Amino acid sequence: MNAEATPGRERLIEQFKADGLKVMFGNPGTVEQGFLDAVDAAADFRYVLALQETVAAGIADGYARATGGAALLQLHSGVGLGNGIGMLYQSLRGHTPLVVVAGDAGVRYDAMDAQMASDLVAMARPVTKYATRVTDPRSVLRTVRRAVKIALTPPRGPVFVALPMDVLDELNSEPVLPATVPLTDVAPSPASVGRAAALLAGATRPVVLVGDGVALSGAQAELVAVAELLGADVFEVDSSEVNIAASHPLRRGQTGHMFGPHSKELVGNADAVLIVGTYVFPEVFPELENPFRPGAKVVHIDLNAYEIAKNHPVDLGLAADPRHALRALAGVLEQRLTPAQRAAAAARLDVRTRERARAELAADDDGTPMAVFLRTLAERTGRDLIVFDEALTTSPLVTRYLPPERPGDYHLTRGGSLGVGFPGAVGAKLAHPDRLVVGFAGDGGTMYTHQALWTAARYGIDAKFVVCNNRKYRLLDDNIAQYWRERDIAEHPYPGSFDLAHPEIDFAGLARALGADGTRVEKPDEAVAAVARMLAHPGPYLVDIQI
Ligand SMILES: Cc1ncc(C[n+]2csc(CCOP(=O)(O)OP(=O)(O)O)c2C)c(N)n1
Ligand SMILES: [Mg+2]
């Protein structure tokens, strides 16, 4: 053995650090004990404890989203991995580069089928891009490097490595080297860009559909340039980051996650469709027929080639980086648009600009406690804050007062797992300790992962939390109402399982029980004082707002 050899459990930490992974979120167990001992002894490496694996995964996910890099998550064997799977599912759908590790008792026990034994790789596979188990002490770091590379290569996503205790106890002399993540800043060829421009240039009702691939490549400015040149409405599809500023007049909002016919209504009249960094369409109940009108020209740009033409044919698919592709496309459109086409595009932009101004004038100042809270928060902070939005049915109000404008200032829950908002805010605050971070969640969503407040209190992570408390699973009410309408079922009381009114949950008391603090807002005038108290409080603070 090489003179420099060290126990694998220690060398593994050096490998994580070489890739900039210096914080590990997790929840421990006995089969990870040697490794966690080494974690405590390691310099410049930090363990952040969460009390339930869903919470650990949610904090890691929020941290990765807020830093734009990978995050490290440790789970305990099959039971801990099992608890984390719902949250890992949303990381997979949202393309979060999470590096997930879990211990097992050891390769030497494989034949015993003993207590805690489970097929970790099989469990992790459906919620990860790559799942494997290290079985030889000469390939621990090699495997972890590969996992990091896969997590960070677009389409990004979670990866899983099972680490048997006996393999980590062996001496290890593998080189510690950063993973090589291949550059994907690829532009399409001029000929391909020319084809895209030819398909889009003549449109009179163009639409652009954007998702988080835009934010990942930093293509927001290039996207706006193309949308303005085309005079195209921009819809966000499966979008959870700031892909286009909320204030841009061409931005028409999200197509939604539930009902295909709704999305079809928004885009079905377009004669040209440019899809960038997303997929068509993400609803739970999508249209099975092609939602675009016959003859519409469809161009799809994405680094994620799997999503191009996944469900419906496109005229041109470009597996390319959105920023480079859109920049090239804007250049060609500048050249080839006729004066008449430019004038028509400018007129479409003008219509949207005037509509937007009228809508802003018409918006009444909703005087509910939540509206007063949001308006006061926006005024007091000059909207200089990071919002983590799992407000669900209250989200439209949140984004009306705190519109997602700058990349990195807003993260929306994604993937459909509840409980993302509060852990996400903790992760974002850890990533940006100097910014104000406010997580919004429904009363339902809060109860999946409220333990995040304990982690925030333990480590002095001064995030703020707002419970949008309507005492129900309101989204489920809304969705079943749609189900009744579609089937001509007469309205009747919502299922009792959607109601949370009894017994009442004392969220501020819950925050105090977990080492944080909080208050409850029932009337509009209490909302103003609650903002002041929340901002002045030197630590995690929860505001329970009655809707
Ligand atoms: C882990 C998980 N369990 C259950 C659901 C189903 N579900 C979707 S929305 C919802 C209700 C959310 O209620 P709340 O957070 O209070 O927000 P509201 O709808 O009231 O605005 C539920 C239970 C889910 N998406 N994820
Ligand atoms: Mg609710």
UniProtKB/TrEMBL annotation:
- Answer yes or no on keyword Lyase: yes
Q: Which example biological process does GO assign this protein?
A: L-valine biosynthetic process
Going by the UniProt record, its keywords in alphabetical order are:
Lyase, Thiamine pyrophosphate
Give an example GO cellular component term for this record. Answer: acetolactate synthase complex
Q: GO MF annotations for this entry?
A: acetolactate synthase activity; benzoylformate decarboxylase activity; flavin adenine dinucleotide binding; magnesium ion binding; thiamine pyrophosphate binding
Domain annotation Thiamine pyrophosphate enzyme TPP-binding: ranges:
398-545
Q: What is this protein called?
A: Benzoylformate decarboxylase
Q: Which cofactor does it need?
A: thiamine diphosphate
Under PROSITE patterns, the record lists: TPP_ENZYMES
Q: Does the keyword Lyase apply?
A: yes
Q: Per the similarity annotation, which family is this? A: Belongs to the TPP enzyme family.
Tell me the superkingdom of the source.
Bacteria
| InterPro entries registered for this protein in UniProt | DHS-like_NAD/FAD-binding_dom, THDP-binding, Thiamin_PyroP_enz_cen_dom, Thiamin_PyroP_enz_TPP-bd_dom, TPP-bd_CS, TPP_enz, TPP_enzyme_TPP-bd
Cite the Thiamine pyrophosphate enzyme central domain residue spans from the record. Answer: 195-329
- The Thiamine pyrophosphate enzyme N-terminal TPP-binding domain covers 9-116
CDD domains cross-referenced by the UniProt entry: TPP_BFDC (cd02002), TPP_PYR_POX_like (cd07035)
- The EC number on file is 4.1.1.7
